[in-house]
Design a protein that fits this description.
It contains 2 helices and 7 strands, in the order αββββαβββ. The chain is α+β, with helices and mostly antiparallel strands. The strands form 2 sheets. A 4-stranded mixed β-sheet has the order 4-7-6-5, with helices on one face. A 3-stranded antiparallel β-sheet has the order 1-2-3, covered by helices on one side. It is elongated, with a radius of gyration of 15 Å.
Amino acid sequence: MFQGGVAQAALDLYFSTFPDSGIVRVEKYTESEPGPVGTIKVAVFTLCGREFMCSDSPIEHEFSFTPSSSTFVEFDSLEELERAFSVLSEQGDVLMPLDNYGFSQKFGWVNDRFGVSWQLNVAA
């Protein structure tokens, strides 16, 4: 649940970052509904072939995304991992920089500029 009408911008970033990603279906707020017109009421989408949902909250609230819930993405190559980490960390917060932490040859954890938390790993 995004705030401030940024769900579409977040989805655009994710679709350009992750393979096998795109909109399955989207419903946007219209004139007679509580959200700003044109923002996302509900979107079903895929990232790396897995299905997710999101929305733009029409109500301002005190909470947002936290790293206690993050999406783990495993990449086939180091180049793909490094590119995704670079894109997602731009204007975001790096929680764990890309490194060998013993459990993985290369792993990183980042909150993107929208507050969504990502654990990124290269396959063994």
